[in-house]
Each structure stands twice: as C-alpha cells, then as structure tokens.
Amino acid sequence: MTDDEMEKSYRSGLPGALGVIDTVISKIEAVILAMGVLLMALNTVTNVVARFAFGNSIMFSGELNRILIIMITFAGIGYAARHGRHIRMSAIYDALPVGGRKVLMIFIALFTSLVMFFLLYYSVVYIVDLHSKGRVLPSLGLPVWIIYLWVPMGFLITGIQYLLTAVKNVTSHDVYLSTGVVDGYKDTETEV
Question: What positions does the domain Tripartite ATP-independent periplasmic transporters DctQ component occupy (predicted)?
Fold first, then answer.
C-alpha cells in the first residue's frame, strides 16, 4: 500500500473522541504536506524558468522555499509518527517477549511524547524571543517569527501522536508502533 493509499484510507484505531482527533489531525497533516511539496515544486520550477528565460530570479523564491521546508519538516514528523516510520534501533526491544515489548513501547511512546512537549515549550520561547527582536524577511517583508510557527505545531502534533500511541498500547492486546501500525516486520526478501 502506498503512502497516498494509507492516508486516504487512514482510520484511527482509537475509540471515540480520541479516534476523531487522530483522524482529523491525519487529514490536516496530509493537506499540509501535499500543499507544501506542490508549492515548493511550483516555486522552484517557476524560479528556474524565470532565471533562464528572463535572466532574473524571483527575489522571494529562496525565502518561500525556506518557509515551505520548515512547514514540510515539522508537519512530516507527525506523519512519520502516525505511520510508524520513525527510526528504530530495536536490538534490545526485539529480544524481549511480547509483554516486555508492550511495556517498553508504552514507555518509549510516553517518553517521546514528553520530549516533544518539552521541545514545544522551548520552540514557543524561541518564537517569543524572535517576535521581540522584530526581524523581518528581506524580500517578503514577513516577520521572521511567523515562519517558525510550524515548529511548535509539529512538536504538538507529534507529541499528541505519541501520547495516542501509548493509549493505544495500554488499551489493546497487540503491540503498536503507532495508533494504526502493529509491531512487526514484513518479509521483503524474495528468492532469486
């Protein structure tokens, strides 16, 4: 199943209001990521055409791409957490029995959620500091702090996602890497 198919068919495995929140966040992430990638591609292609056809670059193109990279990166961390695509170093984890893996996964999800909320706090402090300095982007004229609003939003969504993963593991029999991804490895080897 491709990423697009997963996102279109995504249904939270969480009960009630938590499932609704999880699904709504999933849809918002999908729109942000799709729009960000498309806008970045359009901006880059337009800038290249302008540079070679007219001899001048679009002066705000670099700033716009910087904003879009920040947006895609911090919307993408929540997406990666939702689909169990985060980096795992699992040698000890894999050696544990199912009960031990479940306990460890709950701890990992809760700890990661706390780290995301900690980073959320410090990203807000950073944005407040940027706001107080009054810096603006030279070409677009936007205050610099505005482009970094994606950072705390990304940490918030990722923190919520890991918290929901912990809830899913507490309320479920199986071990889940995210609210919709059961722990396990796919056998991708083929015989030659």
Answer: 40-170
